[in-house]
Amino acid sequence: MTRGEERFSYIFAPELYERLRWFVRLRWWAAVGLLVTSIFGPALGLPGAWPALGLLGGFVCAYNVFFRVALARREQHPGGLRGLRSCALRQMVMDLVALLVTAHFTGGMLSPVLPFFTIHMALGTIMIATETMHVLATVTALGLLGVYVGESSGWIAFHGIHPDVTECGRACDLHLLAITVAMFGIIYLTDSVTSRFKRRNIELHHAKREMEEQAARLQQALEDIRRVEERKSHYMQISAHQLRSPLGTIKTTLRVLLDGYVDPSSEKGRKFLEGAVERVDELLAIVGDLLELAKVREGLEKAPWARNVNLNQLLADIFDSLEPAADAKNLRLVPDFRGVAVLEYGVPPDLVYAFENLVENAIKYSEQGGEVVVELRVVDGRARVRVMDRGIGIPEEMLDDIFLEFVRAPNAKRHTREGTGLGLSIVKEVIEAHGGRVWAERREGGGTVFVVELPLRGDPRPRSRDRNAGVTREEPAS
Amino acid sequence: MPGKRILLVDDDDVFVEAVRAVLETRYEVDTAPNGTEALRLAQENPPDLVILDVMMDHLSEGFDVARRLRRDERTKDVPIIMLTGVDQVYNVRMEVEEDWVPCEKYLEKPIAPEELLEHVGEVIG
Questions:
Q1: CB pairs below 8 Å between A and B: how many?
Q2: Would you write out chain B's pLDDT as a tens digit for each of its 125 residues?
Q3: How far B66 CA sits from the closest chain A CA (Å)?
Q4: pLDDT score at A38
Q5: What is the reported pLDDT for A473?
Q6: Closest Cα to residue A285, out of A401, A387, A416?
């Protein structure tokens, strides 16, 4: 383990915790091994085993209980890697001391337990930082040296198979050297294997996290699609309903004539037929607007985008074309333009449709003899057009809703039956496609103000489109 | 049944005229283009039957009118036929409201003249 792994504590801490529990379980077997060796050791030529190893086994059991309890306490909060590692270090130190004592009582440098030092180095390297293990291995080697020197010089008792440790001098030197090299070697090998595993582990965790994020994004995309589908289907149903209503009237009227309730050739019959034609016109208007709306919504990529669209000119042209309608109601159309607004990009026919629709509405819902003012200002790189009338007004609670498909304010319906309820939806689509906003306000003193804001600079065209295709130099729309 | 009076309420004037032509073969017919006018006429001179369009100025204006007719002393016993061009879009809403909108019949537009007369006959004899 290296210090960099601290960052990935969330990956390694739970794993280390599991290892420590496993370590504790192994230790019970070590304690049993000590007891067994203590009993049978003397018969096998290890005279020092009884009773020393039995007592040592008891001691190992005692500290293992302590570590077991400490781990159980950590169960709820395994804590950081650092805490778990120092716990592992404490266990390792205790085990090495116990092993050293075992080695002493089973023959010192000739003890059959010497290979267990390498096993402990491997276990330690899996759990503790490699640098720490180097220190531990060095201290252990010095410990072994101390035992060897002590035994051979007679400072401490020798419990070996041979009565005199000095008899096998050179072999014991080599044993000490071999065990030291083996400990460092096993640390190196274990480290190189586990560090590769750990890297894999980190990569795997990252891959897993990435996959989870991808899955979440996909889920979100699916949701979005589902919402769009729902909206589409709702829109289809509403459209069908709006078409069905005039159709119902037409059918009823024709049925009444065909079934002979009214004579088709009479004056009344003629009026009925005219009524039916009126409803047919209504149907045609709805179908026309639906097509227009679909065109604006889906056909923006193919729309005739033009450069440098002059809004002043466009509005002036609309004034000309709507003059007759205003005259018929004795209304004055008043232009109030300050500044010149030229859009970098625009779809002239759609803009004409949108502004014409707003001014037409203003005329339609105004009383005889008033005026409709169209104000144009250029503020902060945006064109702001306000279409103001003194008409019937829009109820406060409907100001937002009137831009929805087929929505008309009750007072508007009472005022004029004709009206598909789609015009303002189209206006909104057009203005938003140009990167702008449109909203309605109640006008002080009665009437309505429709406000359109359009950015003069910038390219609002859909991205997927080939930017250079189909753009012509704009001539003012007529 | 001469003498029985029907109040026909619908905002579509062409439809109203067509239905009026059918009903007038057997009944006296008054008409109203919206809920407010319908309530005024019904309370002034309670008819023998009210035929109500559901969707007029707003989505459920017909329902509102029906409820107010039933709440009013003068009109609480007048039978009501709801007429609607509503299809599945508003089904959910309808199912809920049908429970508590006290009407004798619920008919869908368009309706054949003979059929309408039959239904009206069933309600007011």
A1: 77
A2: 458 999 999 888 899 999 999 999 999 999 998 888 999 999 999 999 999 887 766 656 777 888 888 888 898 889 999 887 765 444 434 444 545 566 788 888 888 999 999 999 999 87
A3: 19
A4: 92
A5: 46
A6: A416
Series of mean pLDDT values for 10-residue runs along chain A (478 residues): 65 86 94 93 85 93 93 76 88 95 89 92 92 95 92 83 64 88 95 91 92 95 91 81 86 94 93 94 90 77 84 93 90 92 91 93 89 93 93 90 83 77 89 93 92 90 53 46
* Token pair for A451: 């406000």
Query: For residues A373 and A347, is the Cβ–Cβ distance under 8 A?
Result: no
Q: Which ipTM was obtained for this model?
A: 0.87
- CATH number for position B67: 3.40.50.2300
Does A259 contact B114 at a Cβ distance shorter than 8 Å? yes
Helical ranges in A75-129 per DSSP H = 81-105, 115-127
Residue B7 φ/ψ, nearest 5 degrees: -105, 120
What residue numbers bound the domain in which B77 lies?
5-116
Q: What is the dihedral of CA A107, A110, A116, A120, to 10 degrees?
A: 90
> Distance, in angstroms, between A336 CA and closest chain B CA?
35
Chain A residues within 8 A (CB-CB) of chain B?
234, 237-238, 240-241, 244-245, 247-249, 251-253, 255-256, 259, 261-262, 268, 271-272, 275-276, 278-279, 410, 413-414, 417
Residue B124 inside a domain? The answer is no
Contacts of B17 in chain A (CB under 8 A): 253, 271-272, 275
Cβ-based contacts of A253 with chain B (< 8 Å): 14-15, 17-18
Number of domains in chain B: 1
CB A461 within 8 A of CB A305: yes
Whether residue B91 is contained in a domain is answered as yes
Which of 3.30.700.20, 3.10.20.310, 3.30.565.10, 1.10.10.10 would CATH assign to domain A303-473?
3.30.565.10
> How far is the alpha carbon of A451 from chain B, nearest alpha carbon, in Å?
26
Residue B35: inside a domain, yes or no?
yes
pTM above 0.80, yes or no: no
d(CA A87, CA A94): 11
Report domain extents, chain A: 3-216, 303-473
Whole-angstrom distance, CA of residue A451 vs CA of residue A383: 10
Looking only at the bridges linking them, the beta strands covering B28-32 and B80-84 are unpaired
In a domain, B123, yes or no: no
pLDDT at residue A464, as a whole number: 47
d(CA A409, CA A399): 9
